[in-house]
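The data are quoted verbatim here:
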Amino acid sequence: MNLFDSVESIKGVGPKTAEVLKKAGIKTMRDFFYTLPRDYETYAAPTSINEIRPGKVVIKGKIDSLTTRRARHRNLTITEGIVRDETGGVKVVWFNQNYRARQFTPEKEYYFTGNYELKNGRWSIISPSAALVSDIDPTSGLTPIYVAHGSLKSHDFKRFFNGARGKFAEIPDLLPTVKPGTRREMLFRAHFPNSPKDIEVSRQYLAYEELFELILAAKLNRRENEKLKSVSVPFDAEKIRGFVASLPFKLTNAQRRATWEIFQNMEKSVPMNRLLQGDVGSGKTMVAALAAYETILSGGQVALLAPTAILATQHFDSLSSLLEPFGVKTALLIGATKQKPALKRQIASGEINLIIGTHALLTDDTEFHNLALTIIDEQHRFGVEQRQKMVLKSPQGLAPHLLSMTATPIPRSLQLTVFGDLDVSILDELPAGRQPVETKILEEVEMREKLYPKMREILAEKPDIKGKGTKMHGQQIYWICKAIEDGMKGPISEATSVKTRTNKLREVFPDKTIEYLHGKMKPAEKNAVMERFANGEIDILVSTTVVEVGVDVPNATLMVIENAESYGLAQLHQLRGRVGRGASKAYCFLITSGDIQPSRRLRELEKSNDGFYLAEVDLKIRGPGEIYGSLQHGALDLRIASLSDTKLIARAQMDVEDFLQNPENMVKYKELMAGIAKYQQLTTLN
């Protein structure tokens, strides 16, 4: 069988049905066989109707008295019937499922599965699933439940798969690492299980398949990268030692280790493709400075790409002060930069050694003389195409070395799979003097009693670093809100807005300067507010999450996050990282609303400041799709595999290595090579 043939090869699938399937992404025979059940119902031991109790029930009987009516005053149709067995009868109800009235034959027996509950003063089974007794294997009592797509319901997919039973034997093998015939057997077990063990074994195999493809894609991307040529950057031990000796602080062991890994990479004539990950405040910028200085010493140019003008300006201020005393010429290229044409001519001629900027670096008229190193900060905020455009900026046809940086720690299992084409350096130490941020969960009703006194205490504390402004008396506070204005639609409609919270805080702290910040403000307005906050002219900054990546304000020592339960764990950790950047003790209050118990992610954040630990917890809570989607442009569509299954990942890794030992496999396993193309596009940085 050619698995890339049209799904119309399936019995019962004509052109109209094929069009519905196509809209659901089921175009080929391969797509069809991998449309796996979302769940399974078991009918092994149905309950007699006279013995059913509230909760989920399975009953067996015949149905009659079917009627459909429209609910008064609501856009809703209600289909009702009575299911009877030898012990009695029970009402069943479906909402907006008119087809149910035509689905059943009165003289036939069906299994019904649903919740038995009190609805409108009467006990009923609400929206039960239904299956013909004659369709269920009496030995296993199991039947698959498929996701509905358009007009096609679960029972339609069961009909299609029953019509295709004979075709499973024609499914070709996919992987050389398993016994021949395993794939067809496991797909058949997934759709026609004889026992719960069949389901478990088939899903384990199909998860292995997914991981094999993902890891193979990353390994092949690494091979492609290794075919490229780049400028070799020699290690200048004497100059680097002199630069490090001039620093007013001592590098951490993690910074030294990461820097040495980068230097070793850049000495090769193959482009470095390295990810530098470390918690907020772990010293990534210092490592980037050392990599940039080493590159410039060898005559190459360096470009640093940042996601916002505020962050680019912060990098420019810190890197220029570090490197200009050593003869390095730096420049800032952002939207607000004046005399851009003249600056771009200097970049193209090679007069500027280090160029720091935002998307302005990506424009076609920004040309480099000899770009040898590209540094991308908060790399997940740039799409694959944007990163590729930056990599292609080297005019000599040589690929620049690439150093990506992220303050969002990536779980180990993602490093081995999704980011398998990257070398990874980890900064797992904080510089001396940094203290963990003390984090507390607080109910909204406790704010006046427990939070406001703490705020007064913070605002009265002696500033860590004297601000340039005249109004600052003490340390500073961030207050994060979900909504910009009152009355916003959607899940944040009940949240207190930035503007309302600002006004309320001004009433509580009338002698303090309190301003707000949000994403809908003009860039110049946002920059002006952040500059005033950084200069100490604002005591409390009420903001949306636009401050998640922002300027370094060592004097900010308290972070308040309102409606904390509505944020993801990684984002909460990033927001908390805005404080604790100086020598003073820092605090974070997570404000919850309502009577709901704090979620697991809030409790984990309260007990740990370790971003790497929290990343692993986040993976378990949210799954890989959401995390990967926030890290990289594109979506990771793993249907079965869990990226927390480290044993299966290790097995797939070893098997991929064996597969790559034989170049003939690339030609022999054509379906496998075609199937991994999507993963290659998602995982590549070059």
In short: The domain at 438-608 is CATH 3.40.50.300 (Rossmann fold). Residues 196-227 form the longest helix (32 residues). The two ends are 35 Å apart (CA to CA). Residues 466-470, 489-493, 625-634 have pLDDT under 50 and may be disordered.
